[in-house]
Write a structure and sequence with these properties.
heterodimer, A: 356 residues, alpha+beta, Rossmann fold, OB fold (Dihydrolipoamide Acetyltransferase, E2P), five-stranded mixed barrel, 24% helix, elongated, B: 263 residues, mainly alpha, MetI-like fold, 12 helices, globular
Chain lengths: 356, 263
């Protein structure tokens, strides 16, 4: 099936610096896709190129099969929700939402009906005659969203729209955004630096760094099977083990780590026997017990640091091999104190061999 | 409050301030008072009051036609200066334009060049390009002087305008032209009204440029000047008082508009 949006080998230079490096991305209709990365990674530039506010230095962008690479913003059927909302301060909420519809030449009764329908969707039907400066942050957010949805765009672009809200409202809006996306069946392209937002809402996450795509996949795949150090640290936290490959069987590698034989899943290209690789291990995949357990991996160590975080406790355990690993445990693990001797280990299916 | 008054420095400053206020208002009050005096001579004491000078003024054909002429010039000057001023403000606010500071400085120059110099140079200029003195020449002269007011007010307002408002309009289907008329201009609105009123007031008030560039028809300041040359009379006081009230009210209104638009 033809993708709704297709970035084909898109590059964007600002002077000599490469802001977007050979982006190749296909977005399917009706999906919630997130561009995730630190500031300056090229995610906003990519979004603005699809919106028509930046022109690629090379490559093409197609929308619904049509080449839109060089079309100005008003001639492409995508709409943006801006980071600071950019509501027109001199127009009422209703007129703000109607703006795009009026420019499409829709008759006024139809515009009114559409505006009311959209306001009902976010329960702001009584606010049509208010001015934007009479609204709270969350309400402005919703109005900006409805204004962008009103002209029925092929893709709705969201440029870090939640970053101006406080933490509690941000959580609430994540759920609301996702539900609006599901209700309307629209394709959303969302840009954020917040991994939690990305994991909560997305069907597909595209992790970007320094202008390139590091990895794309659904939230669970990205979390459980990061392909490199950047992804493994940008989304969640990871322990890294330096190991030597002993043998490879399918996508399971047998490794030598500090004299222990361990197994890990290969996510990237096949690793050569004898080469040094990095194994990533999520802190919550690690267990810690007081007595020697009857498990495949059981390593003795000493608790060097303990942090109580409410819903979990983070233990830093120094192993006799000189390595330190961080484990996230249930609050029950309060039993382990700093200086205590513990045994730690992990389920081997949770260990992943990284590409770098 | 008592503590404040005890400080000799503050007493001095406060006293000085009120002296200044008196200096500012006493002449105006005298002028107004004399306009009600039932006598041909402007001097104290005022024995009896009358409205006859006002009646005379509003029935004075010369006065009415001068007012009409001044207003007509002010109107045209305001419209032209606003169009030019907004255009320059947009140009000088555009990040991508080279020499923004120079554009801005040149546009504001007429506000600081002495009126006399401007008037003489304009007079020489219109002769050089064969434009006769008269209405058109006056409008040229006043417009050059009025443009800086619009530029400064429009630029101040533009600076507070979120840059992505225009992006949002374009994103929703507006080309640059529609975005300007439906978003930028309404955003500028309150500041522009203020700027336009100041334009009109500078034009109505102008004497020097009009004197050098004008033809046979007299504007209001020229008429008052001509009347004073023939000797002071309470009628002139009545005229000046009417002008004072009208311009004062409009000026205050404009100032409030502009201040509100900055919030």
């Amino acid at each position: 099936m033809q993708p709704l949006v297709h970035f084909k080998n898109v590059n964007k230079y600002y002077g000599k610096s490469l802001a977007v490096n050979n982006l190749d991305l296909q977005i399917e209709r009706g999906k919630f896709v997130t561009l995730l990365g630190p500031s300056g990674c090229g995610k906003s530039t990519s979004l603005r190129m699809l919106g028509g506010f930046e022109t690629p230095s090379s490559g093409t962008i197609t929308l619904d099969g049509k080449d839109v690479t060089h079309l100005p913003p008003h001639r492409r059927n995508v709409n943006i929700v801006f980071q600071d909302y950019a509501l027109f301060p001199h127009l009422t909420v209703g007129r703000n939402i109607a703006f795009g519809l009026e420019l499409k030449g829709m008759p006024s009764e139809k515009i009114h009906a559409r505006v009311m329908e959209l306001l009902e969707l976010v329960e702001l039907q009584d606010y049509a005659d208010r001015m934007p400066d009479q609204l709270s942050g969350g309400q402005r957010q919703r109005v900006a969203l409805m204004r962008a949805l009103a002209p029925d765009p092929d893709v709705l672009l969201l440029d870090e729209p939640l970053s101006a809200l406080d933490a509690k409202l941000r959580h609430q809006m994540q759920i609301e955004l996702k539900s609006i996306q599901e209700k309307t069946g629209k394709t959303f392209l969302f840009v954020t630096h917040d991994q939690e937002e990305a994991l909560t809402m997305s069907d597909l996450i595209v992790v970007m760094n320094k202008g390139r795509v590091e990895q794309m996949g659904d939230p669970h795949a990205l979390y459980a099977r990061p392909v490199n150090r950047f992804v493994a640290t940008f989304i969640g936290e990871s322990n890294f083990l330096d190991a030597v490959v002993r043998s490879v069987d399918g996508n399971i590698a047998t490794l030598d780590w500090c004299g222990h034989i361990i197994h890990a899943t290969l996510t990237g290209p096949a690793a050569k026997v004898g080469s040094h690789v990095t194994v990533a291990l999520r802190p919550e995949a690690i267990y810690a017990v007081s007595g020697q357990p009857d498990r495949k991996i059981a390593l003795p160590g000493k608790v060097t640091n303990r942090l109580f975080k409410g819903n979990f406790t983070a233990l830093t355990v120094g192993l006799h091999e000189g390595q330190s690993l961080v484990a996230q445990l249930d609050p029950v693990a309060l039993a382990h104190l700093e200086g205590d001797d513990v045994w730690i280990g992990w389920r081997e299916e949770d260990a992943v061999v990284l590409a770098d | 409050m008592r503590l404040y008054m005890k400080n000799p420095q503050n007493v001095f400053l406060t006293g000085f301030y009120w002296a200044f206020v008196a200096y500012l208002f006493v002449p105006l009050m005298l002028m107004t008072a004399m306009s009600f005096k039932d006598s041909n001579f402007i001097s104290f004491p005022i024995d009896s009051f009358t409205m006859k000078w006002y009646v005379q003024v509003v029935q004075d054909e010369q006065f009415l036609s001068a007012v009409g002429y001044s207003l007509m010039i002010a109107f045209i000057v305001t419209v032209v200066a606003t169009a030019i001023g907004v255009w320059i403000a947009l140009l000088a606010s555009n990040e991508a334009i080279w020499g923004k500071a120079l554009i801005f400085a040149l546009a504001c120059l007429p506000a600081v060049v002495p009126g006399m110099i401007q008037a003489i140079s304009m007079r020489i200029f219109i002769r050089a390009i064969d434009v006769p003195t008269g209405t058109f020449a006056i409008i040229l002269g006043h417009t050059v002087h009025a443009v800086p007011f619009v530029v400064i007010m429009a630029m101040t307002r533009l600076r507070s305008m979120p840059s992505n408002l225009v992006d949002a309009a374009r994103d929703l289907g507006a080309d640059n032209f529609i975005a300007f008329f439906r978003v930028t201009l309404p955003y500028l609105g309150p500041a522009l009204v203020g700027g336009m009123i100041f334009c009109a007031l500078t034009s109505i008030d102008d004497f020097v440029r009009t004197f050098f560039l004008g033809g046979y028809q007299t504007t209001l300041p020229m008429l008052i000047f001509a009347k004073i040359s023939g000797g002071m009379s309470p009628e002139i006081n009545a005229m000046a008082t009417l002008v004072l009230i009208a311009t004062g009210a409009i000026g205050l209104y404009a100032e409030r508009r502009v201040r509100r638009s900055r919030n």
